[in-house]
Amino acid sequence: xDQLLRLNELSPADAEAxxxxxxxxxxxxxxxxxxxxxxxxxxxxxxxxxxxxGLKTEDWLxxxxxxxxxxxxxxxxxxxxxxxxxxxxEQSGMQAASAELVSELANRNREYEARFGFIFIVCATGKSSxxxxxxxxxxxxxxxxxxxxxxxxxxxxxxxxRLQKLLRTAQVS
Length: 173
Known about the structure:
173 residues, elongated
């Protein structure tokens, strides 16, 4: 069965659970589930963007908390097996990282979180560990409001990628 059709046919609670795999904001997932049925992928992706544009800071912070820190395997307790797999795939650039680089990134992660009050969010897909370290080293100098907007933009990229993965999934669970 086409995954979009399956998503359209799910109960509101089940659809919300599926959408939460893509973005950890309960409001985003609830609003997207309520916007169904979608006539096509373009409509779904457009509604995703529209809902994302209307989220408030607390919604984004909730979404950020659903992610493991870059270079860490421990994810949010609520993360499904599918989300854990997606996170591992997205952070695959960390697999070849030296222990020294992993340690340096962990230190920068702690500094970043202390400075901004949320974890470092980056769309890690296709990025090496060195690239991620360079990105956090640049971004840690942003002012808090600028950095929140950068993190939101990165979260939106992650959400879109995950929504596309969800649409390709052989079975929505």
